[in-house]
């Protein structure tokens, strides 16, 4: 799924204009490259990430992915130990790989997922970081039945920058509904680019318990960038953030 109107890391956006995506030209794809990311020193051994846009928009770094990774590395790594983790719309796998790098070997395998075209890039990045024993890449198309390889009701679900294409909103809601068990929590980070993005959160709030996460020291900076972090749970569970 391509998203010509979205904003990768390092680009600016005019949030006050509600642009119809079909009217926005596809920008020239940037060439494939490799980044080394320590998340401001939170990882002692930096993550290597191959970026390649040829198979879709997930092939590069996105702002909410960076924010969610930093939040998780700062605040929550101790809570991950021995938990099942599934990442949705992982792109190149930034968030799941960052958590795996920090917590390996004290985790069961993390499952990073996306659509079929992103599978080779996720696998490349797993190998690049020597994390084949800790992370598995799988196809998970939102709105479709969960494949057998995805843990049922994982303890932790990760989703960064997955709100950007309105036709996919009900599909993402449906997959969250399938995945969220009574003990699950989804750490959900998105950058609001268009008014339509708020419709996703409105629907999510009807379906799930949605708590904005406010205990990150950089939260005010993120808010100025229209980046928001939430903990999403099934309605029956009211655990603490
Ligand atoms: C903007 S990218 C974010 C990538 C990554 N999470 C990050 O923060 O860097 C959105 C990702 O969602 C994936 N995606 C979009 N629609 C999807 C669908 N229907 N099912 C599964 N993944 C989807 C895209 O392939 C893409 O990798």
UniProtKB/TrEMBL annotation:
Organism: Aspergillus ibericus CBS 121593
Binding-site list for S-adenosyl-L-methionine: 62, 89-91, 114, 142, 160
Record-annotated membrane-spanning stretches: none
Molecular function terms from GO: protein-lysine N-methyltransferase activity
GO biological process terms held by the UniProt record: methylation
GO CC aspect terms: cytosol
Coiled-coil residue spans: none
Subcellular localization(s) per the UniProt record: Cytoplasm
UniProt superkingdom: Eukaryota
UniProt similarity note: Belongs to the class I-like SAM-binding methyltransferase superfamily. METTL21 family. EFM6 subfamily.
Keywords: Cytoplasm, Methyltransferase, S-adenosyl-L-methionine, Transferase
The protein's name in its UniProt record: Protein-lysine N-methyltransferase EFM6
Protein task: S-adenosyl-L-methionine-dependent protein-lysine N-methyltransferase that methylates elongation factor 1-alpha.
Gene3D superfamilies in the cross-refs: Vaccinia Virus protein VP39
EC number: 2.1.1.-
């Amino acid at each position: 799924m391509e998203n010509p109107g979205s904003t990768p890391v390092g680009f600016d956006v005019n949030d006050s204009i509600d642009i119809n995506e079909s009217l926005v030209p596809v920008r020239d794809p940037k060439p494939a490259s490799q980044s080394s990311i320590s998340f401001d020193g939170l990882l002692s051994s930096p993550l290597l990430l191959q970026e390649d846009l040829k198979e879709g928009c997930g092939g590069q770094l996105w702002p909410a992915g960076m924010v969610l990774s930093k939040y998780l590395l700062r605040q929550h790594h101790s809570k991950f130990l021995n938990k099942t983790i599934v990442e949705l719309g992982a792109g190149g796998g930034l968030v799941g790989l960052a958590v795996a790098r920090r917590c390996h070997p004290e985790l069961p395998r993390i499952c990073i997922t996306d659509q079929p075209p992103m599978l080779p890039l996720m696998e490349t990045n797993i190998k690049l970081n020597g994390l084949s024993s800790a992370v598995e890449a799988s196809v998970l198309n939102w709105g479709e039945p969960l494949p057998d390889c995805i843990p049922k009701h994982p303890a932790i679900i990760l989703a960064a920058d997955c709100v950007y294409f309105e036709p996919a909103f009900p599909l993402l809601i449906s997959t969250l509904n399938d995945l969220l068990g009574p003990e699950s929590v989804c750490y959900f980070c998105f950058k609001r680019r268009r008014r339509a993005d708020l419709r996703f959160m409105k629907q999510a709030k009807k379906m799930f318990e949605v708590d904005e996460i406010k205990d990150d020291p950089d939260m005010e900076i993120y808010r100025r960038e229209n980046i928001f972090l939430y903990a999403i749970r099934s309605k029956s569970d009211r655990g603490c953030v």
